[in-house]
Amino acid sequence: MSQSSSVTDAEEGRTMGLREEESGLTLRRLEVWVDDWRLRMRMMSVCVEGCQDTTGGALVSLIYGYTDNGDPFVRGFTDQLLEEVSKPFFQILQKWLFAGELHDPFSEFFVAENPELAHIQYTHAYSNVNAGTLTGDGGFAGAEEDERNDSDETRNNGLKLWEGKYEFRKEMLPSFVGETFGRKIFSTGKSLSFIRYSCHDTDWVATRSKLDHAGRALKYSDLPGLVRSIDSAYQIASQRLLDIFLDKFKLLDHLRALKSYLLLGRGDFADQLMDSLLTSLSRPANTLYRHNLTATLEAAVRASNARFDPPDVLRRLDARMLEYSHGEIGWDVFTLEYKVDAPIDTVIDPDGMEKYLKIFHHLWRMKRVEGALSASWNRIACGARSFLGPTIKGVRRKSSAHSDVLDQLEGEWHQIRIVLSEMIHFMRQLQAFCQLEVIECSWKELMDFVNKKEGDLDGLVQAHRNYLDRMVKKILLMSPKLGKEEHLLIHLRELFNNILQFRDAAETLYNYCLAEAARADSERDHDRGVYTMPETDQLSASHKSADSLPRILRRVKEYSGLFSERAQSIVHALQVHQDLDCRFLSVRLNFSDFYRTRKELKAALEASKGS
Fold first, then answer.
1. pLDDT tens digits for range 40-57
2. What are φ and ψ of residue 342, in 5° steps?
3. DSSP, res 329
4. What are 185-229's pLDDT values in tens digits?
5. pTM as predicted
6. Most confident stretch, 20-34, 49-63, 259-273, 524-538
7. How far is Cα 554 from Cα 578, in angstroms, rounded to an integer?
8. Rounded CA gap, 66 and 63, in Å?
C-alpha cells in the first residue's frame, strides 16, 4: 500500500508540474506571442528606412508598393498602415477635387502652386458696357482705354495663368491613382479654381452643390468610389467651364469675328475696306495717321454687313500701322487688330494672335494683288477700244484715233491680255484654296469639337492651336524641311511683286497708247486746219513716245517671262510637297498641264511622234 501511494503521489506531482509549465511564461511561448508584432515592427522598420527622404504622395506610393505581397498578413498590415498614412493626402485631395482649393503647406501633394502667380488675378479690360462707341484714335475701344491696356503691367494673359499657376508633379502622384486619373484630378481642381477666381462665376453656388452631392469622403479603402468621384467631378467642372466660355464670354462670337475680319471671311467688308484704303496705302508710310485709318475702318464697317455684328465685337476691331522703315508704303505696314481680354485670351492667346496677323498679312497681300489685276483688266479690256477699236465678228475695226504705232501694238495687247488672264486665274485659284480648302475645312473641324462639348479647357485650347497651325501650314505653304520652312512663301511673295510690276508696266503702256491716240487725233485736227497743240509739243511728245516705247515693251516682256518662270517653279514645288492639300493646289493651278517644263513638253512631243 505504501508503494502504490508513493507512485500515485509522484504522478500527481508530475501533472501539477506540467500544469504550472503550461500556464507559465516560457521563452518559446513568448516567441510565439511576439512573432506577429516583431514582424510588424520589422516591416515598419523597412518602411521607415525606405521613406526617410520621401513625403506626401511619394510616401504613400512607396508604402503601396508593399501591398503587392503574397503573404496575407503582410498585405493586411500594409493596407492598415496605408489607410492611416494616406488620410492627409485624401484630405488635400478632397478640397482640391471638389472646391478647387489647394491647402498643402508642406508641399506633399502632386499639385504645386507657382508662387509668382499665386495671387495674380485677371483684369477684365473690356468690362465697360459703354465702350461700344465706334470713335477715337485708339480704335473702336477708344484711345485712352487702349493706352491703359497697353501700359498695364499687372495684366497677365489668361493662358499664362491657366498653364502656369499650377504644376503637375508626377513624382508625388500615388501609384494607385495612376497618371490618367491624376491628370483628371489636376484638370478638375484647376478648372474649379479658374471658375471661382478668374471667371467670377455668379452661379458657382449651384455648381458647388452639384459637386458636393457627387462627392463623398475619400479614403484608400474605397478606391472604386474614388474613381467614380473623380469621373463625376471632372465631367461637372469641365462642362461648367466650357459653358462659361461659350455662353458668358461668347467665345464663338470672337472666333467668328477673327475669321470674318482677320481671315477676310466677310467679303463685302474686305472689298469695302480695300477700296477705301486704295489711295491712302499707296502713299509713304510716314504720311499715314492712325486716326485716319480708324475712321476708314469705321466707314467700311458701316457700309457693309459687318455693322450687324454685336457692339462688343466691333469695339475690339482696330486698324494700326506696324513699325516702318525708310521707303516703305502703307501696304507694307497696314494691319488689322482684334483685341481680346481675360479670360478669352486663355484660348486666343498672344501667340495665336500673332498667327492670325501673319495669315492676315498674307491674305491681305493676295487681296491687293487680285484687286489690282481685276482693275487693270477692266481698264485695259474696256479702255483699249478707244485706241484699238472694237472687235466685231472676229475682225478688229479701226478706231477714230488710228495710228500706225497703235496698229503695231495690237499683238502686244493681245499677249498682255493673255498674261493678265493667266495671273487672274493663278490668284483666284490661290484665294479659293485658302478660303475653301483650308479656312473653311479647318473651321469645320474646330466647330465639330466645340459642338461635342467634350473634354476640358486644355482640350479646347489645343483644338484652337491645331486650327491655327493647320491654317498657317497650308495657307503659307510651309515646308517641313528644316531651314526651308518659308521657301515657297518667299517665292510666292516675289511672284506677287512681279505681278504688281507687270501691272505697272501694262498701265504705263496703256497711258502711252492713250497719249499716242491723242497725238494722232491732234495731227488729223492739224491737217484739217484745227489748232489743238503747238508743233513743239507735238515733236517733243513724239520724240518722248518713240524713245520710251521700246523700254516699256521690254519691261512688259521681262515681267511676263519672270511670272511664267516663278509660277512654273511654284507649281512644280507644290507637286512634290509633303502635304496632300498643297499637292491638290498644284492640280488647281495646273489643271490643264499648262505649267509643264520644257523637258516634259519635249518628252511628250517625242512620245506623240513615236506613236
1. 787 777 777 767 777 888
2. -75, 145
3. B
4. 999 999 888 888 888 776 665 666 566 655 567 888 788 888 888
5. 0.82
6. 259-273
7. 38
8. 6
CA distances from 588 to 271, 440, 563, 591 (A): 24, 17, 17, 5
Sign, CA dihedral 361-367-368-369, equals: positive
And the C-alpha cell for 518?
491723242
Residues contacting residue 82 through CB under 8 Å, at least 6 positions apart: 60, 63, 64, 67, 220
Burial class (CB in 10 A: 0-12, 13-18, 19+), 139: buried
354-358: long-range pairs with CB below 8 Å, 24+: 355/468, 355/469, 355/471, 355/472, 356/258, 356/262, 356/263, 356/468, 357/262, 358/472, 358/476
Q: C-alpha grid cell for residue 408?
A: 503695231
Minimal CA–CA distance to 263: which of 431, 494, 466, 424?
A: 431
Cα–Cα distance for residue pair 558/47, rounded to 1 Å: 84
What is the C-alpha to C-alpha distance for residues 246 and 449, in angstroms, rounded to an integer?
13
Query: Could you give phi then psi for residue 284, rounded to 5 degrees?
Result: -60, 150
β-strands 391-392, 334-338 pairing: unpaired
Q: Could you tell me the three cell numbers for 318?
A: 482696330
Cα–Cα distance measured from residue 78 to residue 68, given in angstroms and rounded to the nearest whole number: 9
What is the rounded end-to-end Cα distance, in angstroms, of the chain? 143
Separation of alpha carbons 483 and 184, rounded Å: 39
- Within 8 A by CB and 6+ apart from 377, the residues are 417, 420, 421, 424
Q: Are the C-beta atoms of residues 219 and 83 closer than 8 Å to each other?
A: yes
- 3-class DSSP assignment, residue 489: helix
CA–CA distances in Å: residue 486 to residues 13, 196, 493: 108, 44, 10
**Nearest alpha carbon to residue 595 among 551, 574, 573, 564:** 564
Calpha distance 154→437 (Å, rounded) = 41
Nearest to 138 by CA among 316, 395, 258: 316
H-run or E-run covering 351: helix 350-383
Task: Please give the Cα distance from 364 to 60 (Å, whole number).
Answer: 59
Helix (H) or strand (E) holding 269: helix 267-277
- Burial group, residue 301, by CB count within 10 angstroms (0-12, 13-18, 19+): buried
Cα–Cα distance for residue pair 520/504, rounded to 1 Å: 24
Question: Mean pLDDT, to the nearest integer, of 361-390?
Answer: 84
Please give the grid coordinates belonging to residue 119: 495671387
- pLDDT tens for each residue of 213-225: 555 678 887 888 8
Give the CB-side neighbour count of residue 519, counting CA atoms within 13 A. Answer: 22
Q: C-alpha 347: how far from its chain's center?
A: 9
3-state SS class at 472: helix
User: Of how many residues is the chain composed?
Assistant: 611
